[in-house]
Model the fold of this input.
Amino acid sequence: EAGVVQSPRYKIIEKKQPVAFWCNPISGHNTLYWYLQNLGQGPELLIRYENEEAVDDSQLPKDRFSAERLKGVDSTLKIQPAELGDSAVYLCASSLGLAGGYNEQFFGPGTRLTVL
Amino acid sequence: DAKTTQPNSMESNEEEPVHLPCNHSTISGTDYIHWYRQLPSQGPEYVIHGLTSNVNNRMASLAIAEDRKSSTLILHRATLRDAAVYYCILRDRGDSGGSNYKLTFGKGTLLTVNP
Done:
C-alpha cells in the first residue's frame, strides 16, 4: 500500500517567488494535515482538512500561505511570495477520520524548501 | 494544550533496552499519551499510544504512571534503526471534540544508538 506522497522532495527558490507543494494522502483517508517543521523543532500544524473542508487553519499565515483540497483527495499548499524565513520542511499527513476511533496520522517524507 | 517535558537527548547501546521518559504533570483526565518518532530525513511515524493502562505493541511498550503525570516509552532491544527523535505528545481533541485531533509536537528526545 502506498504511503503519503509528497512532491517535490526538495525545492530551492529565490525570495519573493511563489512555490507550491503537492500531497496525495493514503487512499480512503478523509483527514489531511499540513505541518511546518523548522530545523531542530517538532512539526507545527498549519491546516487540517476533513474531506474538502478546512476545519482548522488558525496557524496558517493567510497573508502569504494558501491551501486547497478541492475534491477531498489530494491537496496543494502554496506560498506567495516566499520569504527567507519560510525555509523549512513542509510535511503532509493523513488519517482515516473515523468518528469515535483512534486516528493514527501517517506522514509523508516532506518537502524541504530553501529560500535564497 | 497540556505540555510534555522530555530530555533533549539520550544514548544507548545496540541490543540493550531503552527507557525514554516523558513528564506531563498538567495532563487532563481525557488526554491520551502518544509517542511518535522521526527517523532522519523522514516524516514522523506512530509508535504507540495509551490512556491509563500500560500498552504493548510490536514496536515498543508504554508504561504510564498511576497518577498519569509521567510515562516511559520502552524499546526492549534497541537497534541502529531505532536512532531517531522521539516525541511524547498529549492529544488535543480540538474544537470538534471528535476523533480527529491535532498533534502538538515539542522538540522530542534525540536517541543515539551505539553499535
User: Anything to note?
Assistant: DSSP finds no helices and nine strands in chain B. The two ends of chain B are 38 Å apart (CA to CA). Residues 94-99 of chain B have pLDDT under 50 and may be disordered.
